[in-house]
Amino acid sequence: MATFGKSTFNAAKYASSRPTYPRQLYDFVFKFHERAKGARWDTAVDIGCGTGQATVELTPFRRVVGVDPSARMIEQARESVKSRLAGLDLSSQVEFVQSPAEELGFLNDGSVDLVVAAQACHWFKWDKVWPEVARVLRKDGSFAAWGYSEFRLSRYPSATPIINDYAQGSDPANSLGTYWERPGRTILDNHLVDVPDPRDVVPGKFSEFERVFFTGSHYPDLAGARPVILRKRLSWAELLGYFRTWSPLHTFHERFPEDLERPDGDIAVRFWRKLKEEAARADGKELPKDEDPVDIEWPLALILARRA
What we know:
Strand content: 15-25%
């Protein structure tokens, strides 16, 4: 998470390259919320909102608040709302506040109907977040947090070992595995199962808690896994752009700046080229062009809770 606060971090480029959460995910969360007899649609809060991608999807609620500890993210979130919703003035409905998820003092007790966290909860201190969420949620209010793990090439399962070697390898000179910020990345890769049940942290405050896995066949050991819903079609050039948003790549290049000068391309380009070569081998064709499409998918985990 410290990467997002560095002066070299480009929030706009980060926002443009990340996967977009599907309507199906928001509908799943909203249906969970509306199942409660006392469900209300007044206020929703997105903690760890980043550039506001999920925040602007919460507009079924009358008031929406995006919260993030990074000033750069909050600035980009405000700008992205203007550009993505051109012609729509949501300034009276959507607002952004710079604050950590563990400190929501600007919200009154029992004033919130839904709290969400999109690709952020792996950074939270749950011994503080669960009590704070319990404080701000009104009775029958809902909590939803989701996170996606390592990407996969939908049409090329044979590329998965190449992805794992690059993203999770232990060789600090030839992979990024040792540069992820821990334990956050580990929690994502474990599909949020390390997030504690709120009923254990704040007994009596939550009436429901469940885990949902949209992981398809990628992780057969996960109980009740549903089909993958987080997908994106990119060009190969755009896929390389996505790789450049990875926080461990920034850290790798701080340690090995000379890697950026290699004539055969830096570590991200070399990895990207290996994936191209594997796609060509699997298809029995020549190397795909930069503008050719490639389908990406991400296994996604969702946790849901309801305030008692």
